[in-house]
Automatic annotation (TrEMBL):
Gene3D superfamilies: 3.10.450.50. InterPro entries: SEC_C_motif, SWIM_PBPRA1643. NCBIfam families: SWIM_PBPRA1643. It comes from Vibrio aquaticus. This is Zinc chelation protein SecC. Signal peptide: none annotated.
Length: 110
């Protein structure tokens, strides 16, 4: 019998596979299918936020409510996406040294 044979109930395994957080979802926030919701205290602030959303082509439902605090968390999240970190490639041992000595990296600066 194979080591990969599942010994438990099959319906339990299927439920476990289907559950979890879906990171690669098809609908992105700020589109027509999933507009973001923003609450602002004044009409002037609403116009400012609408201008920012149109500039970045984000679809938002903006509500003016003086009794609630301003909530622009979803807009801030879309505008300040994290960028991918790129590191410089470290030279291999047998590559020429970057200091310009003409020696191999392993005999010079390693």
């Amino acid at each position: 019998m194979s080591k990969l044979f599942f010994k438990g109930r099959i319906e339990t395994r299927q439920n476990h596979v289907l559950s979890g957080y879906n990171v690669n979802r098809d609908i992105k926030a700020g589109t027509e299918e999933a507009p973001i919701h923003i609450v602002v205290p004044t009409e002037v602030r609403k116009q400012e936020v609408e201008a920012i959303a149109q500039e970045h082509s984000i679809i938002a439902n903006i509500t003016v409510d003086e009794s609630q605090d301003e909530n622009t968390l979803e807009l801030d999240t879309l505008l300040n996406k994290a960028k991918t970190t790129v590191f410089e490639k470290k030279p291999n041992r047998n590559d020429p040294c970057s200091c310009g000595s003409g020696k191999k990296y392993k005999k010079c600066c390693a």
